[in-house]
UniProtKB/TrEMBL annotation:
The chain crosses the membrane at residues 20-43. This is Sortase. Gene3D superfamilies: Sortase. Keywords: Hydrolase, Membrane, Transmembrane, Transmembrane helix. The keyword Membrane applies. Coiled coil: none annotated. It holds the Pfam family Sortase. The keyword Membrane applies. GO terms for molecular function: hydrolase activity.
C-alpha cells in the first residue's frame, strides 16, 4: 500500500514539474481534434454563426463609390420600409414614389458620399389604410437622441445615430442638401396624413458601415 502511495506521489510531482509541457500537449490535442471535427462537419452550426457574427460586428467597411439606399429600419419606431430612388424631383413623380415606400430626395447625398442624405415618407394614424406605405414613417416623433437608424444597400448595413427630433412648420423647414464633408441623414414626415402644415424632422449622424451577417 505504501509503495502505491509513493508511486502516486512521484507521478504527481512529475506532472507538477512538467505542467507547462502537459498544458501545451493538451492544447495541441484540443486544436487538432477541433480541426478534424470541423473538416468532417461535426462542429455545431450555431458556434460557426456566433463566431462569424462576432467577426462581422467588428469589421467596419469603407466603401468608395456612392450607392443608392434600398431599405431603412428603425427599431424604436417600428419602421421597416423600402427606399425609392426617383430620378426626377417633380411633384407628380415624388407623389407616385411615396405610394411605394420612403423616398430618397434626388440630389441629396447617397451612401458613401459626403453630405446630407434626405429621406421622406408618409405618416397616417387612420385605423384602416389600404396602402401600408401611407404609414411608412409612422412614429418618427417617438425617437430620441441616441437611437439607431439602419439603412441597407448592396449587402451592407449603414448605421446612424439620432441627434435631434423636432416638430416644425413646413414653411420653416430648410434641409441642407449641399455635398461636402461629414455624412448625415435627415428624415421627414408629415404630422398626420394629408396635413402639409407641419413636419417631423429627425437628424442623425453616420456611425459606420458593416457587412450584413449571413
Amino acid at each position: 500500500m505504501m509503495s502505491i502511495i509513493s508511486d502516486l506521489q512521484k507521478h504527481i510531482r512529475f506532472i507538477i514539474q512538467h505542467r507547462w509541457r502537459f498544458l501545451c500537449m493538451y492544447l495541441l490535442v484540443f486544436f487538432f481534434t477541433y480541426l478534424l471535427l470541423s473538416l468532417f462537419g461535426f462542429v455545431p452550426e450555431s458556434m460557426n454563426r456566433i463566431s462569424e457574427g462576432s467577426m462581422n460586428e467588428r469589421v467596419v467597411v469603407e466603401q468608395k463609390a456612392p450607392i443608392e439606399p434600398e431599405r431603412i429600419v428603425i427599431p424604436e419606431a417600428n419602421v421597416d420600409v423600402e427606399i425609392r430612388n426617383p430620378q426626377g424631383n417633380n411633384i407628380a413623380t415624388l407623389d407616385a414614389e411615396l405610394k411605394k415606400g420612403a423616398v430618397h430626395y434626388p440630389g441629396s447625398a447617397l451612401l458613401n458620399e459626403g453630405g446630407n442624405m434626405f429621406l421622406f415618407g408618409h405618416s397616417s394614424y387612420l385605423p384602416i389604410v389600404h396602402n401600408r406605405n401611407y404609414k411608412a414613417f409612422n412614429n418618427l416623433q417617438k425617437l430620441k437622441e441616441g437611437d439607431s437608424i439602419y439603412v441597407y444597400a448592396e449587402g451592407l448595413e449603414y448605421r446612424y445615430r439620432v441627434t435631434s427630433v423636432a416638430l416644425a412648420q413646413a414653411s420653416e423647414v430648410v434641409v441642407d442638401l449641399r455635398k461636402g464633408t461629414g455624412k448625415r441623414l435627415t428624415l421627414s414626415t408629415c404630422n398626420s396624413f394629408g396635413d402639409i402644415a407641419e413636419r417631423y424632422i429627425v437628424e442623425a449622424d453616420f456611425v459606420g458601415s458593416y457587412p450584413i451577417a449571413s
